[in-house]
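Work Package 3 (structural annotation) set out to generate three-dimensional models for the target panel prioritized at the project kickoff. During this period the team completed the workflow that converts sequence records into C-alpha cells, so that structures can be stored uniformly alongside our sequence database. As a representative example, we reproduce one entry of 230 residues exactly as it appears in the project archive.
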Amino acid sequence: MKVTYIYHSCFLIETEKCYYLFDYFKGSLPQMDVGKPILVLASHKHKDHYCPAVFSILKELGMQKIYAVLSKDIPSKNTPEDIPCMIVSPCESYELPLGQKLVTYRSTDKGVAFLIQDGDEIFYHAGDLNDWVWEEETDSYNRQMTGSYRKQIDLLSEELHGRPLTAAFVVLDPRQEKDYGRGMLYFLKRIQGNCIYPMHYWEKPQIIERFIQEYPQYQERIKLTETSQF
C-alpha cells in the first residue's frame, strides 16, 4: 500500500486492487497505472473537499476505470453523468463497486466520514468530522459539538472491535487556536493505528510539529503528512 498526500484533505491510496482518491479539490496527481480502477470519494460539498473537474482530470491522465462515491449533500448537478456513481448517506453500510465494505459516519459539519475495509486493510477519512470547538461560540454549543464528535468516534471504535487502522486521515486545524488538537487527541485515545495523517491544516504544516511537541507520546503514530510515504 502507498499513501500520497495531494493537498489539504486530499490523499491518494494505492493498493494491489485499486486506487482511492479522497476529497480532491486541487493539486497535482501523480502518474498512475491507467488500467487499475480508481474510486473517487468526496465526503461533502464544500469547495475545499470536492471539485467535479476531478473526473475530467483523471480521464486526461488516461484512467480507464473510474468510480465515484459521493456524499448525499453534493448537488446532483455536480455529479458525473458518464461514470458509475454511488450516493451515500451518514450512518450506513455499503458494498463498494470492487467488493470492499464502506461504513459512513455523520459529520459534525457537512456530509460523512468514510471507513473502508479492503481485505486486511482498513482506511478512515474524516472529511469534516471533527470536534469543532471555537472560543467565540457559547459553552452550550461547544459541549454539544464535543458530544456529537465523540459519539461518532465511539461508533467507529465499536465497528473496529480493537482492530488497528492501516491508515487514517484526521483533522488538525490551526484555526481552532488552543483547541486545535481536541479532535485528534480523542481519536488517538479511542482508535488504534500507527499511520495517522493530519489534514485540513490550511497550508500550515507546522501545526503537526506543534502537536508532536506538545504530545510526544503520540510521535510514533503521527505522520508528517507532506513528507511521509507509506
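The helical segments are 54-60, 139-160, 182-190, 206-214.
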